[in-house]
Amino acid sequence: MNGDENTLALGERGRPAPNREELVLERIERVRRSRPRLREELITLAHGAGGKASRTLVEAVFLEAFRNPFLEPLADGAVLEAMEHGEPAFTTDSYVVTPLFFPGGDIGDLAVNGTVNDLAMCGARPAHLSAAFILEEGFPIRDLRLIVATMAEAARAAGVTIVTGDTKVVQRGKADGCYITTAGVGTVPAGVRLGASAVRPGDAVIVSGPIGEHGVTVMLARGGLDIEADDLVSDTAPLNGLTALLLDACPGGRVRCLRDATRGGVATVLNEMAQAAEVAVVVAEEAVPVRPAVRGACELLGIDPLYVACEGRMVAVVAGDSADAALAALRSHPLGEGAAVVGRIAEDPPGLVLLKTGFGGTRIVDVLVGDPLPRIC
Amino acid sequence: MNGDENTLALGERGRPAPNREELVLERIERVRRSRPRLREELITLAHGAGGKASRTLVEAVFLEAFRNPFLEPLADGAVLEAMEHGEPAFTTDSYVVTPLFFPGGDIGDLAVNGTVNDLAMCGARPAHLSAAFILEEGFPIRDLRLIVATMAEAARAAGVTIVTGDTKVVQRGKADGCYITTAGVGTVPAGVRLGASAVRPGDAVIVSGPIGEHGVTVMLARGGLDIEADDLVSDTAPLNGLTALLLDACPGGRVRCLRDATRGGVATVLNEMAQAAEVAVVVAEEAVPVRPAVRGACELLGIDPLYVACEGRMVAVVAGDSADAALAALRSHPLGEGAAVVGRIAEDPPGLVLLKTGFGGTRIVDVLVGDPLPRIC
């Protein structure tokens, strides 16, 4: 034991009780005055440690942007008010898009709209979202604030609240800035029951607007390609307004299946339907809405727009005799102005998607094998 | 245009219609025969692309392990049966623990138990979970299968089903093998209303068992430290059985607040309560259960067990006159055998946690500032 330790030990033992209490009281005042403020400019591991820095980050960034009575207690989870009558729907998606910011949006509205849309595709009215962040050490808090602001705005636009969340921080080189996982809950109104297996021969296949804009925009935003397309922006948008109109216009099970055409694009969605319902999906290539900028970029990149991700477009299969009503309903909404019937469901060949080309030919639209556009969402 | 392309073009045009159809039919058969099988040993970007490889991974690994009627349609989200009467609870957490496998568990049961526990801490009965995976390119599918098997087992043990999910793949060096984000929904029975702000002077503070085992176990599993502790395993466990017993034993609002002592440990949880309720939490150091192996490791590492994460221990604050009933209820469950009253709630000094040490002294247990144990969960 060296002298210093001895002195300390003697001092501790030797100090009379009142002095000790004063010391504690002084410390109490010091702790109380140090109220949390977010001073850092970059995310540190401490922001994910659950202590003072985590709390400050949560209060200064997340609570500030998302504030609502369910989130406010900042407890382990949110206790909600009883939801509207019907079957609950529940979904989740992780977002790892790169770059984080791109024309028309960022990972924030993508993460909100994507989960809102997954609920809408179940026929549900989205109600509440959770948001879990995996941040890389060194990520700029300024960027995080921008992302969180976009999320808050997207949530407002979709009519949902972000009620619970989590933040983890990993060391430099163990993530790519910011990954977000959202989950969502909502309610499926009575009488609505959608699913790929409900699709049947004679049904009409509708897409809600021009396809491929999100995927091509993100691809071009990565740079390195000598393509400029100033008028291209991501189509990221909440589709719950559109699905509500559609379900109202085609009641009684006449809407068979809704799918948002994200990873793998329209082609993948159609293949999943064909396989689940054991039907053929026959698509007229010329009827599929594709903006010239998307078509041009796809040609240069050597990819088919049918495989390119949208984040605000859906495929709707409705009873054949409801196609007109469905189209009118979709077109009455700003996000459905470009809706079009692109094909029909047939009996044969079951499990496959056939594309009728402009030249009178037919080709099989198979599911994607590789990944032409990694980390698009 | 070179010769080959010419030949192809001529051949296509020159071929009579029936031949073309034969070609399509042949192709149809070939596509149909190629049913998905998981042949790869490592995760590739294609597994996250939403196409054939994604589908195969989901069917061969996730659906196989988690199978239940809600998950089976593999739609954008799960449509559930109406849940039991009460207020819905909703929570989420991301898991980035390293190493992925450690004595007593792995990231899989951690992700299930953690979210089950967050629901239980709201007083809810956990019902359904979502699971979203962010995988690094090159991650062994064998390891993924192990993790998924642990998740399935943990879900069974906690009485919950995993009903929806997502898989994203990022390039090598953009993650650390596997990150998992779970979200959970459950129902808070009528009459239960827990929260840090419900804590009041005179209440008893209980911990459900020895603390710090998860954090120390993971720390040691990282190696590089010359400490061996063969009998140390993570305490990861679902606490919903324990909370149900406790709420039954202390009805009518006598359970004030439940918190699982994860990141930041018991000290952080107590500080959050002290601040939210503007009360003092006075803890008797000698009453806090800490196993010798944990105490020893903490001394060598220079950390206080009060700040070390548990993943299967909770802090319960109950009305002072219910302490005995609460303790009896907890101790009747295998996960609560080591439960102990560790302190009480006082009026002064509001917002602080005071520790009465063995030597008759008092020290303030402040919230964590840095991060002594990053990526513990």
From TrEMBL, chains A, B:
| Organism the protein comes from | Sphaerisporangium dianthi
> Per the database record, which ranges form the PurM-like C-terminal domain?
200-349
Please give the name of this protein.
Hydrogenase expression/formation protein HypE
User: Would you identify the family this protein belongs to, as annotated?
Assistant: Belongs to the HypE family.
> What domain of life is recorded for the organism?
Bacteria
* Every PurM-like N-terminal domain range: 76-188
Gene3D superfamilies found in the cross-reference section: PurM-like C-terminal domain, PurM-like, N-terminal domain
